[in-house]
Amino acid sequence: xxxxxxxxxxxxxxxxxxxxxxxxxxxxxxxxxxxxxxxxxxxxxxxxxxxxxxxxxxxxxxxxxxxxxxxxxxxxxxxxxxxxxxxxxxxxxxxxxxxxxxxxxxxxxxxxxxxxxxxxxxx
Length: 123
Ligand SMILES: [Zn+2]
Known about the structure:
The chain is an alpha+beta fold and 123 residues long. It has three helices and nine strands, in the order ββββαββαβββα. A hairpin with a 6-residue loop joins β2 and β3.
């Protein structure tokens, strides 16, 4: 684990529509805001990735959970939302939810059983 503390990282805020996202590849934290202030992570996730379709759950290696949920979208505009997050680095998008992507597909991982079931059920 990397030492933290005195040596704080600078979080870069990326606007995606009305949402401001700061996803840090170093401390792996994600901050969600809009023009009014902090917003609920689930609200931010819905705003950025609401139109994504699930491709399935896959056994995974090197992820924060044993299975990874893979999503995609046919909309080039929605796909660009992925760029607000570091590629191939897991960040904590919400208290029980890890997120990364490969530039094309959205990858989510959770050890929270109920959240897993909600995510696989689809929006
Ligand atoms: Zn950081």
